[in-house]
Design a protein that fits this description.
Blueprint lengths: L3 H10 L13 H10 L9 H11 L16 E3 L1 H7 L10 E7 L2 H9 L2 E2 L16 H7 L3 E3 L4 E7 L5 E5 L6 E5 L1 H7 L1 H18 L1
Parallel strand pairs: 2-5
Antiparallel strand pairs: 1-2, 3-4, 4-5, 6-7
Helix pairs in contact: 2-8, 7-8
């Protein structure tokens, strides 16, 4: 266990030098990073009906919406991270999606009786005439009439996505990239930034 001076001399003889840098102690954050990089718990097949419903505009067994068309969507948030190998905490029966705001989305929300609360505290009766800001404000914690909690991030156009095969579907689906989740979700950003710092430090 040499002194720092002796270590400097040994390293100098090898043609290198020691540089020491201090960084904040983030034990609690590192525990969260460790949790995110633990064992991934797969999403269950309840997502299959959601995916089929979004692509068909109305879930199986329900009347089709007046206007046909597919909703432009991708898995978002913790679910997107889980599908890409992170053990992010995915809540049961909570569906995180990023969706493009267009007529197909409006009619899908109407068809599945998606319930939201407007800025006056009233139940939204129709999604057809609301603008982007009003829809975004009414959506946190939106619930489908027959069950299921939705966290919809409404956008003008989807950000970066990847196509992934998932165990509960016989096709690939769009998933928001890790960088896009980090950009859009403050609750994941700090953990992902720290994970990247630790990864880069370990590689160096």
């Amino acid at each position: 266990s040499p002194t720092v001076r002796t270590l400097d001399r040994l390293l100098a003889a090898c043609g290198v030098q020691l540089r020491v840098a201090l960084e904040p102690l983030k034990a609690e954050l590192d525990e969260r990073v460790a949790a995110y990089t633990g064992e991934v718990v797969g999403l269950d097949d309840s997502w299959a009906a959601i995916a089929d419903g979004l692509d068909d505009l109305a879930p199986a067994g329900m009347m089709r919406a007046p206007r046909r068309g597919a909703v432009t969507w991708a898995v978002d948030g913790a679910a997107a991270l889980a599908l890409q190998g992170f053990a992010a905490p995915v809540e049961d029966f909570v569906y995180e999606l990023v969706v493009e705001l267009d007529e197909a989305l409006r009619f899908w929300m109407k068809a599945v009786a998606l319930q939201g609360i407007d800025d006056h505290g009233y139940l939204v009766m129709s999604w057809l005439d609301l603008d982007h800001d009003a829809i975004s404000a009414a959506l946190p914690g939106a619930r489908m009439g027959y069950g299921g909690l939705y966290r919809l991030r409404v956008v003008a156009s989807l950000g970066p996505t990847v196509s992934l095969a998932v165990p509960w579907l016989d096709r690939t689906i769009r998933v928001a990239t890790v960088d896009e989740v980090e950009r859009a979700h403050p609750e994941h950003r700090e953990v992902l930034e720290r994970w990247r710092q630790n990864r880069d430090r370990d590689v160096a």
